């Protein structure tokens, strides 16, 4: 396709090598465009915005070997190729000298990541897709789920065929899925993030592969009914460390840490967390090392969590998701998200 800011490979050839060598050959951010039976319509997928979340790229590499022929044009962006290939591969959210790309989709578009985000926006405006799905892995192990900034029947129909839960968030972080609110030409485009599960979970690649097949095979997205068992949760809270706080992960408290989270905190990404469950141990300042702000900026941490004999507990049954055991992600992004249950 002509007129896009980023490089384009149309109808990419089948690559039977390793994913790493395939990405190295691509060289950087690139659109892979599969021409469809109806090229008047386009559907778009972005993946690898985070270099340590490879399931979308892995699934795409395998799916392309099937020589698919989509019903419509399908444009797939491999974004942060440089971050993904930084040694050791698939371990860096972004390169040390750059910003988190999925926090750069709002002005000012500073640095290489900001410039890349602006180029992606310009390309999406030109593509004018009838849907946009951003594929990620969760920071910790857990089931797949979807996230959107608003409800839309097409987003819910697609998400409900790939996972059991859709989170509708009022938090705004500068992520790609917020673009319909900021870019007039994308205002009517159903958009959501698909969190496929943990990067090391084989099932995560199957979820991503299911997305590519679904978008390629479905003639008309508006005709897809929403599965009745899709659970929709609204207005999650980000539980974050306050500036300067130290977190570690272990099976016993660390005396020098502000917070010691249970070593397998990501087990709470499934089901409902009971107030009886110990999530970790608090340091001498107790809950003061944490905050949980809603979309209006109000800190609601103490409505949801409490300290009991130096341990961190939920005040009420909660749904946790995106709980990570990676201390770097916990410091630079967040500990987990939470929604009250019931």
TrEMBL record:
Cofactor: Zn(2+)
Signal peptide start-end: none
Keyword Metal-binding (UniProt): yes
InterPro entries according to UniProt: AstE_AspA_cat
Assigned keywords, A-Z: Hydrolase, Metal-binding, Zinc
SUPFAM superfamilies per record: Zn-dependent exopeptidases (SSF53187)
Superkingdom of this protein's organism: Bacteria
GO molecular function terms listed in the Swiss-Prot or TrEMBL record: hydrolase activity, acting on ester bonds; metal ion binding
Span of domain Succinylglutamate desuccinylase/Aspartoacylase catalytic: 49-139
Protein name: Succinylglutamate desuccinylase/Aspartoacylase catalytic domain-containing protein
Annotated organism of origin: Halomonas beimenensis
């Amino acid at each position: 396709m002509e007129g896009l800011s980023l490089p384009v490979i149309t109808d990419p050839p089948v690559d039977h090598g390793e994913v790493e060598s395939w990405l190295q050959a691509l060289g950087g951010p690139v659109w892979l465009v599969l021409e469809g039976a109806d090229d008047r319509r386009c559907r778009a997928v972005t993946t690898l915005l985070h270099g340590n979340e490879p399931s979308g790229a892995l699934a795409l590499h395998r799916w392309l070997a099937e020589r698919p022929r989509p019903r419509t044009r399908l444009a797939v962006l491999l974004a942060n190729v440089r971050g993904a290939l930084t040694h050791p591969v698939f371990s860096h959210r972004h390169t040390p000298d750059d910003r988190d790309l999925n926090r750069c989709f709002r002005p000012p578009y500073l640095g290489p990541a900001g410039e890349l985000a602006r180029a992606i926006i310009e390309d999406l405006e030109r593509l004018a897709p009838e849907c946009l799905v951003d594929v990620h892995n969760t920071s910790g192990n857990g089931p797949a789920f979807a996230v959107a900034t608003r409800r839309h029947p097409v987003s819910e129909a697609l998400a409900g065929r790939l996972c059991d839960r859709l989170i509708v968030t009022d938090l705004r972080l500068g992520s790609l899925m917020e673009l319909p609110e900021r870019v007039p030409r994308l205002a009517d485009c159903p958009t959501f993030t698909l969190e496929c599960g943990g990067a090391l979970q084989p099932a995560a690649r199957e979820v991503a592969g299911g997305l590519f097949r679904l978008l390629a095979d479905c003639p008309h997205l508006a005709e897809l009914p929403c599965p009745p068992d899709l659970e929709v949760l609204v207005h999650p809270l980000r539980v974050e460390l306050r500036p300067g706080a130290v977190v570690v992960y272990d099976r016993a408290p660390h005396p020098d840490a502000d917070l010691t989270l249970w070593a397998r905190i990501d087990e709470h990404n499934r089901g409902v967390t009971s107030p009886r469950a110990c999530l970790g141990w608090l340091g001498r300042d107790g809950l003061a090392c944490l905050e949980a702000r809603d979309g209006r900026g109000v800190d609601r941490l103490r409505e949801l969590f409490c300290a009991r004999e130096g341990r961190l507990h939920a005040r009420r049954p909660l749904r946790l998701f995106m709980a990570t055991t990676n201390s770097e992600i916990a410091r630079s992004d967040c500990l987990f998200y939470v929604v009250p249950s019931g």
